[in-house]
Amino acid sequence: MTSATPGSSHVKEQMVGWAFKLCGLLSLFVTVGIAVVLFAEAAHFFGEVSVVEFLFGTEWTPLFTEKHFGILPLVLGTLLVSAIAMIVAIPLGILIAVYLSEYASARVRRSLKPILEILASIPTIVFGYFALLSVTPFLQKIIPGLSGFNALSPGIVMGIMILPFVVSLTDDAMTAVPHSLRMAAYGLGSTRLQVAFRVVLPSASSGVIAACVLAVSRAVGETMLVAIAAGMRPTFTLNPLVPVQTITAYIVQVSLGDTPAGTLEYRSIFAVASVLFVLTFILNMLAQKLRASFKFTYA
Amino acid sequence: MSNAFEIKNLNIYYNGLHAVKNVSIDIPHTLITAIIGASGCGKSSFLRAMNRMNDLIPNSRRTGEILFHGVDIHQPMMSEVTLRRRIGMVFQKPNPFPFSIFDNVAYGLRIQGMRDKATLDQRVEESLRRAALWPEVKDRLKQSAFALSGGQQQRLCIARTLAVDPEVLLLDEPCASLDPTGTARIEELLQKLEKEITIIIVTHNMQQAKRLSDTVGFFHLGELVEFGRTEEMFEHPRIQLTRDYIMGHFG
Question: Are A41 and A77 in the same domain?
């Protein structure tokens, strides 16, 4: 068979180009579509509930006969679990990343990194059961007052869950620090520990902070784990020992329940989802900015 | 004239590569010694051996002895960390830390545990003055070191090294990435420092070696071909290979 004429191959090229562009646009449309639905439904909700009550109210009882729509208990629950997760994930993640990038031999590195990736591939529902059925009973032996559902246990498990994420991004940032800076530090009589913590880590700081911010963003959006192990009781508290409800867990509760579409309770999930969306959006933007400035430093 | 270094039968290997071959040399105290030779002749490896920076290169191996003021630098009692504080190093490409100008110079002092603000201030100023950078940066010590020009960055790296008060300054082609003005300023600075500390500079710029150094060593394919007083070697090289290199026949 002879090859196609130049004219037809040109048309083909153009069509392929269009097809790719369409795929790209599709993902954009979906994102915009979701945002539009989210905010439109939320707007209906705010037709009936005042924004001020929603944002500053400290009682969240949309499923009771006496309804209150103050989102703060959910926000506090979300922040509490995320904060516990970060207390676990950030120091541990940074230490592991320092070990991987500054201490581990190439061989250890090659075998350790895939193990961490495996940790990242465990379904979150498994982590949820692990928190509820293993970690909580264990913690109850140490902390007598701990209730069966609480923020502490899922917080700790979530910290372990996002650990690979923190390690991987921090390690990337640290290995991107030019070798010449390590040489300069050694040349000035630094020990290996000083090179790691006083030169490489500070030099990678914007990348490391970006890693942490992205990790927070994931923690805030995590659903299954908290829905299973944190309880379903929106409590305006920072006490990690009692049941709380996060924004995501509330959405699960309403979505799975028999709340009829179009009711105020139904619409409330769009309002809280909008808050979640804005929160993670801001966090992701912040992380991107930090990463850009990190890349700029060593361009 | 006393010797800063006495090096006996030094060999350096990287995996299979024999980079420095049986080099023996005495390097005089408080003078400038230049090491010249074509790229890949082992001169940088030789330089890095003197403050044990080669130890950081995986699969590098050494035989032979290096005495620093009569003391074997590889003896168990000698830590490479202490050694590197006494023998400072400046690299080919300026490599300031992404910190402020002040923090760059203060780094070496801080890792030794110096906290006192007044002493730090004084030592930083003194080091920047010695590196002839003070007038240009005294009003912007808090600015990032990356805001400086290449030549200024290299002088900052020299100041950072001088801050810990080393007895020896090793420079590995410090002007390779600088323009003629930047180069001239560094050379001027080294000539001033020569009176206080021992300087060993690797360069493949023959004119620079001729202008700066008191003694010069010529390396070829890992061997030390000739070593002697600079004027003598440039005017009456004893060995044909040296003559060819100096005349620019190769390299």
Answer: no
CB contact under 8 A, B89 and A187: yes
Is B88 in Cβ contact with A187 (below 8 Å)? Answer: yes
Cα separation, B241 vs B248, whole angstroms: 11
| Residue A278 in domain | yes
Which residues of chain B does A189 touch, with a Cβ-Cβ cutoff of 8 Å? 81-85, 108, 111-112, 164
Q: pLDDT tens for residues A59-69?
A: 999 888 888 99
Spatial separation of the C-alpha atoms in residues A181 and B97, rounded to whole Å: 6
- Verify that A158 and A231 share a domain, yes or no: yes
Domain coordinates in residue numbering, chain B: 3-246
Give me the residues of B, 47-86, that contact A with CB < 8 A: 51, 53, 56, 81-85
Clarify whether residues A160 and A20 are in a common domain.
no
What is the rounded end-to-end Cα distance, in angstroms, of chain A? 50
Check CB contact under 8 Å for A187 and B85.
no
> Residues A79-95: pLDDT tens digits?
999 999 999 999 999 99
* Distance from C-alpha of A113 to C-alpha of A164, rounded to nearest angstrom: 9
Pick the residue from chain A with its C-alpha nearest to B165: A188
Interface pTM, i.e. ipTM: 0.94
| Residue A5, φ and ψ in degrees, nearest 5 | -70, 155
Amino acid at B125: E
- The CATH number that domain B3-246 falls under is 3.40.50.300
Q: What does the block give as tokens for B51?
A: 């403050």
> How many CB atoms are located within 10 Å of the residue A111 CB?
9
A158 & A245 share domain? yes
Full residue range of the structural domain in which residue A285 is found: 72-297
Contact: B97, A199; criterion CB under 8 Å: yes
What digits encode the pLDDT tens for the residues B116-148?
Answer: 999 999 999 999 999 999 999 999 999 999 999
Q: For all residues of chain A together, what is the average pLDDT?
A: 91
Does residue A177 form part of some domain? Answer: yes
Helix A264-297 to helix A72-98 angle, to the nearest 10 degrees? 30
For residue B150, give the amino acid letter.
G
Asked whether the beta carbons of residue A189 and residue B157 sit closer than 8 angstroms, the reply is no
Q: What distance in Å separates the CA atoms of residue B179 and residue B187, rounded to the nearest whole number?
A: 12
Residue A138 Cα distances to A85, A142, A169, angstroms: 18, 7, 31
d(Cα A294, Cα B3) in Å, to the nearest integer? 46
pLDDT in tens, B147-170: 999 999 999 999 999 999 999 999
Q: Which residue from B81, B95, B96 is facing A189, i.e. has the nearest CB?
A: B81
> Does residue B162 contact residue B134 with C-beta atoms inside 8 Å?
no
